[in-house]
Design a protein that fits this description.
Blueprint lengths: L1 E10 L2 E11 L4 E5 L6 H8 L7 E6 L2 E2 L5 H6 L1 E5 L10 H5 L1 H5 L4 H14 L4 H4 L9 H13 L5 E5 L7 H18 L2 E6 L2 H7 L2 E6 L2 E6 L1 H6 L4 H6 L5 H4 L25 H11 L3 E4 L2 E4 H12 L1
Parallel strand pairs: 3-8, 3-9, 6-7, 7-8
Antiparallel strand pairs: 1-2, 1-4, 4-5, 9-10, 11-12
Bound molecules: adenosine-5'-triphosphate (ATP).
């Protein structure tokens, strides 16, 4: 679906991307993960030609990126960035309509699509359609950013730290909602982040970068449990397999037994549930109608460690 072969980017003598190759399959959410300055954003922007390659080749849906007109290439891909990139003088509806307008959709179809996209990202079109970006909270603006990227129904989404600017609670909600959207729509997504938990929660595959190079690529389980060097191991911290618990939802391991105390949301991850158990000094925490046991969590850790 998307293939990079020996891609290099030099910025005036500084080699930001040093000959990287990878392949992203259709419907896959591929995470580029690494510390600040390692070349993640540059790699993403090479794909939609916002940055020109120094050398190497990039293919999108089997075609070389140079064989497209730049506008045609960009229209194929939704692009979401941290600061949302919304046009400040356009209301939410008009922001979402930008690419469909360029694609010359008729007015009725654009309007309908705008409403559908706002509903998909959990915003009421009647309340939000006419608002200007400055009248939105950070989390709402990010949702509009995602709605706008999805509006023309591109096969591909390029997302550069899309939830980086929002507070941790809204971020977790947005991540979970986006995961649900992705489960339904199955877009091919390249997602840039430096947040390990975000990468583990969302990624089908994770590509770890350092100093313009790929250090390791694999499923979340592979990179956590079989780190190829100390950098990857350190990057995931000492918690190792514990970080993997981010990927599992409490609801999937719910037991019928009741437990005392404030219930956790069924959407909490096993990692959050484990932290709560440690904080409360208990081996069972209540969920909505049921509970989760330490033993249940330990079984997941043991299973994943095999
Ligand atoms: N337009 C530019 N001109 C010169 N150097 C640049 C330019 N854009 C990026 N760089 C440099 O290239 C390197 C990689 O930058 P890039 O933005 O791709 O990293 P990143 O991994 O996305 O970092 P962050 O997580 O901080 O956004 C950095 O050292 C950066 O300073």
């Amino acid at each position: 679906m998307i293939r990079l072969v020996d891609v290099v980017k030099n910025y005036e003598g500084y080699e930001a991307v040093k000959g990287i190759s990878f392949h992203v399959n259709e419907g896959e959410l591929y995470v580029l993960l690494g510390p600040s300055g390692c070349g993640k954003s540059t790699t993403l922007r090479l794909i939609n030609r916002m940055v020109d390659r120094t050398s190497g080749d990039i293919y999108v849906e089997g075609e070389h990126v140079d064989s497209f007109q730049v506008e045609t290439l960009r229209k194929k891909m939704g692009y979401v960035i941290q600061s949302t990139g919304l046009f400040p003088h356009m209301n939410v509806e008009d922001n979402i309509a930008t690419v469909p307008l360029l694609l010359k959709w008729d007015a009725e179809r654009i309007k309908k699509r705008g409403r559908e996209m706002l509903e998909l990202v959990g915003l009421d079109p009647k309340i939000y359609g006419k608002k200007l970006p400055k009248e939105l909270s950070g989390g709402e603006a990010q949702r509009v950013g995602v709605a706008r990227a999805l509006a023309s129904d591109p096969h591909i989404l390029l997302m550069d730290e899309p939830f980086g600017a929002v507070d941790p609670i809204s971020r977790l909600r947005l991540q979970n909602e986006f995961k649900e959207i992705q489960r339904k729509l199955k877009k091919t997504v390249i997602f840039v982040t430096h947040d390990v938990e975000e990468a583990l929660l969302l990624g089908d595959k994770i590509c770890i970068m350092r100093d313009g190079e790929i250090v390791q690529e694999g499923t979340p389980e592979e990179v956590i449990l079989k780190p190829e060097d100390a950098f990857v191991q350190d990057f995931f911290g000492k918690e190792g397999a514990l970080s993997l618990l981010t990927r599992f939802k409490a609801r999937e391991y719910k037991e019928t037994e009741k437990a005392e105390g404030e219930p956790l949301s069924d959407d909490a991850s096993l990692k959050e549930a484990l932290s709560e158990m440690i904080l409360r000094g208990v081996d069972r925490v209540p969920l909505e109608k049921g509970s989760l046991s330490l033993q249940g969590i330990m079984e997941v850790i043991r299973r994943e460690h095999k």
